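Design job #97: recover the sequence.
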């Protein structure tokens, strides 16, 4: 289906246009309010959902003001595919359901509900609600199965289906779907909540049609898209033409030797358009960290939109922003390659690469790499008193640090860039619903990437299992090796990963695993990285480093080793610290004279010094660029070489030269 121009000759006056354009946004935001008030899933309640208004051809007229980024740029694809699938059989009272990631969607947990809207027998729009269902079946609770070799081992893939047929609820279809999912009652509740949201949007749209007339509203649809296209073209026209290039990485392909998986992004501004070429990216990997076309296009749109915050979002933007996403690569995995973990894998890598590219074009808005999205999931039988072994699903994500910016430190403990509107989940709510108790939730000292403007700080979250049976845990993340990086001379954050303690024995579980058995008394902890640093850490104001030490953002030891600021502890209990100016000058001169050589030191020697306790993990990462398998302590030679190259390009090349 292609987008057409208005069918009428109506020319809207500016006031009517602005009233209707704002009404479309309000319509979508009312859908969000409805879902939060009626959903069953704690995941959706914490804002892992988005809504939109589509025109009769599936083009996005408006998304909401608080939609999460990963759904941006995908909802119109899903709508178009569904309208095409049911062409000739679209009726008033129909409601459709689909979660197919290969039809322009994201992953199978994102379930879209669509309602065609008719006026006097003519299709005029589609209202759409997308919610992340906490489970859609499959071997692993939460449907994140790292062992999946194809989507058949991930969960229930739903092609376009009628869930209401001309106003008649298809309870047979709904039951078939939800009974193949854990916590079926919750899934049915989310289905009804999303459906009701689309009905409310239909009701509000028809009120606008009754008040202004269908021709006026349809013209406002088209003019809303034209408006977004126009202002985006105007802003691009003010920028220099050119081509910029960078890369980001997934830690590894489990089917190959150790070494990064490249996501290659080239951006070209040509007049009033911007194009992205990702054809240099590696082929899809042997686990679920791949992206589909829709997910990667979403990352392109979201990464771009971050630098143009005043531009509304609808299909008008897609006339200006385009992308080459070759099939068979990690950014466009074909059916049936698994893609459930795409947001923690390829998606955010594309976004962060685009941040770096736009940081060169618009340096006043520059930002280093943000922490990696991660999901920790647990499921089984709740054996607490009164629960009688009922099924539970604990589905958790963490906040973390965003990258340092030009002139400002990064944001601490913020939602991941894939979903800036996500809420930090209520610990009390989680503990009420599931047999887990949170043991700690605090900012991680030294997690922020050092820089003239440091990254935001990450968090550490720990928990302990209560009475449960037949329970397992899964984890989806990345950047244990391709650690959150800085720009313009800034340094990396800290590795992601989970530590699980059972029977007094602690084990580093890494960033991806599925269905690990857990039992009452087992404990776990995981940190989120801080954002990468911006600018040379040796140029940071020593007084700012001192304040970070007082706030426990930076330790006294790392203040000296990362920033070259020597701080004396007078009385830490009352935050009494003092900078030693002479020692600071000496330490900064020492680091400046040696740091480029540190990146050339023999990795085997550095690894030995680490095992002997002379160096710690952050020394390896930030000083020497050495990456180990953090579980076994084994040196990763190829990964180290690639990581060092990253540090040379993004950090060492920008460091202040020796005076």
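Job complete. Output follows.
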């Amino acid at each position: 289906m292609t987008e057409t121009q208005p069918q009428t000759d109506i020319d809207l006056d500016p006031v009517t246009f602005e009233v209707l354009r704002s009404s479309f946004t309000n319509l979508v935001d009312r859908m969000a309010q409805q879902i939060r008030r009626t959903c069953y899933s704690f995941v959706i309640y914490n804002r892992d959902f988005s809504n939109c208004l589509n025109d009769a051809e599936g083009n996005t007229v408006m998304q909401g003001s608080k939609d999460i980024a990963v759904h941006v740029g995908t909802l119109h694809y899903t709508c178009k595919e569904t309208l095409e699938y049911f062409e000739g059989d679209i009726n008033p009272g129909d409601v459709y359901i689909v979660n197919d990631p290969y039809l322009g969607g994201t992953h199978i947990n994102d379930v879209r509900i669509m309602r065609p809207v008719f006026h006097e027998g003519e299709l005029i729009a589609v209202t759409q609600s997308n919610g992340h269902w906490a489970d859609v079946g499959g071997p692993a609770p939460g449907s994140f199965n790292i062992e999946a070799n194809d989507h058949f081992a991930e969960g229930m893939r739903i092609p376009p289906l009628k869930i209401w047929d001309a106003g008649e609820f298809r309870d047979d279809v709904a039951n078939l779907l939800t009974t193949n999912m854990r916590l079926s009652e919750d899934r049915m509740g989310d289905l009804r909540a999303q459906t009701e949201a689309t009905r409310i949007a239909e009701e509000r749209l028809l009120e606008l049609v009754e008040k202004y007339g269908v021709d006026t509203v349809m013209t406002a649809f088209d003019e809303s898209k034209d408006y977004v296209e126009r202002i985006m073209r105007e802003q691009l026209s003010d920028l220099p033409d050119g081509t910029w290039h960078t890369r980001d990485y997934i830690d590894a392909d489990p089917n190959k030797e150790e070494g990064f998986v490249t996501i290659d992004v080239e951006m070209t501004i040509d007049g009033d358009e911007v194009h992205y070429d990702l054809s240099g990216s590696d082929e899809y990997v042997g686990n679920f960290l791949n992206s589909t076309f829709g997910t990667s296009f979403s990352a392109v749109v979201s990464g771009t939109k971050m630098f143009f915050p005043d531009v509304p979002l609808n299909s008008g933007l897609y006339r200006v922003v385009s992308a080459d996403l070759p099939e068979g690569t990690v950014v466009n995995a074909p059916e049936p390659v698994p893609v459930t973990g795409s947001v923690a894998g390829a998606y955010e890598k594309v976004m962060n690469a685009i941040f770096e590219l736009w940081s060169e074009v618009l340096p006043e808005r520059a930002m280093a790499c943000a922490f990696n999205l991660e999901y920790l999931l647990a499921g089984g039988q709740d054996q607490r008193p009164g629960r009688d072994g009922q099924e539970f699903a604990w589905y958790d994500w963490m906040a973390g640090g965003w990258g340092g910016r030009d002139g400002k430190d990064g944001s601490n403990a913020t939602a991941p860039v894939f979903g800036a509107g996500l809420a930090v989940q209520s610990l009390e709510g989680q503990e009420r619903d599931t047999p887990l108790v949170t043991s700690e939730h605090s900012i991680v000292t030294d997690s922020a990437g050092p820089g003239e403007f440091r990254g935001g700080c990450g968090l550490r979250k720990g928990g302990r299992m209560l009475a449960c049976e037949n329970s397992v845990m899964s984890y989806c993340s990345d950047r244990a090796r391709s650690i959150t990086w800085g720009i313009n001379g800034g340094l990396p954050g800290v590795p992601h990963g989970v530590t699980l303690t059972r029977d007094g024995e602690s084990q580093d579980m890494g960033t991806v695993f599925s269905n690990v058995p857990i039992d009452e008394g087992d404990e776990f902890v995981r940190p989120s990285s801080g954002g990468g640093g911006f600018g040379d850490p040796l140029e940071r104001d020593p007084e700012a480093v001192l304040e970070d030490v007082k706030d426990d953002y930076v330790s006294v030891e790392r203040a000296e080793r990362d920033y070259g600021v020597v701080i004396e502890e007078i009385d830490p209990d009352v935050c009494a610290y003092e900078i030693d100016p002479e020692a600071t000058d000496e330490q900064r001169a020492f680091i400046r004279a040696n740091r480029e050589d540190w990146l050339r030191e023999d990795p085997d020697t550095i690894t030995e010094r680490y095992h002997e306790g002379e160096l710690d993990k952050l020394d390896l990462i930030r000083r020497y660029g050495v990456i180990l398998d953090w579980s076994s302590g084994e040196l990763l030679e190829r990964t180290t070489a690639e990581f060092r190259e990253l540090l040379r390009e993004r950090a060492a090349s920008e460091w202040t030269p020796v005076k």
